[in-house]
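Q: Here's a chain of 303 amino acids. Please give me its 3D structure as tokens.
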Amino acid sequence: MIKKNILPDFNNTYPIDQVGIEERVARFTTRSIKKSSKLQAMKMVLNMIDLTTLEGKDTEGKVKQMCYKAVHLHDAIPGLPTVAAVCVYPTMVKTAKDALRGSLVKVASVSTAFPSGQSSREIKIADTKYAVDNGADEIDMVISRGEFLKGNYSFVFDEIAAIKDACGNARLKVIFETGELSTLDNVRKASDIAMYAGADFIKTSTGKISPAATMPVSLVMLEAIRDYYYKTGRMVGMKPAGGISTSKLAIHYLVMVRETLGGAWLNNEWFRFGASSLANDVLMQIAKDITGVYQSSDYFSKD
């Protein structure tokens, strides 16, 4: 975390050129990729996915099944990686941790009254500590969007810093719910606040509200990460979440990351996809490249 007395003035950030952002995004989607590079990119995408179940009807059995899939994406195809992490509610962290023991897959937990963020700071801190105490490697917190939209940026900064402190050794992903922030200017401002408050990752969305991740929003966040890195020397990760369901779109995101931040960010230490349904589409495309035919979706679990 950066000391408060050297923070930028969050009330006077420069405006985002929306036309310029959209033009750059359009160029990313027209890049030509060779077949061999495409297969490598799809395996990279798989290794960057956070498989997620965040439903009121979640059970230990459902979480265990998802954890099995996280390690065994498709045993009929040799050489596949695991996903990066599974993401669950705090009450399911211990179940996931036990199920993934001996693997490299991380356990992430949402916290801070996910997805609304509408609770007291004391409860949010307790929520976070509960997840960490049960073994969470990563915490995905939501910001208080109401306070942000009121212009109470100090409140948002202090809350992120407090949750970061409660994380201990766990990495902190800060979710903006960009669909509620409305403007690209607000997305940039939220990105700056989160990073200076100590975020290890910035994340677009909870996946519960539409629109979720979009390429223009994600590009604004990537450019914020780039500018922050140039100023501080500290790398921050990025996680677009929600709405990314095809391998083609995921590869467009990889191109955008590569051309905005460079190759150092092209691994699951610094880039993730929050999109469980994406895994099945990528697996179908990889199987098609290897066998020449598409497999039925019945061959892939829904978890």
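Q: Can you summarize the key feature?
A: The chain has a mean pLDDT of 92.
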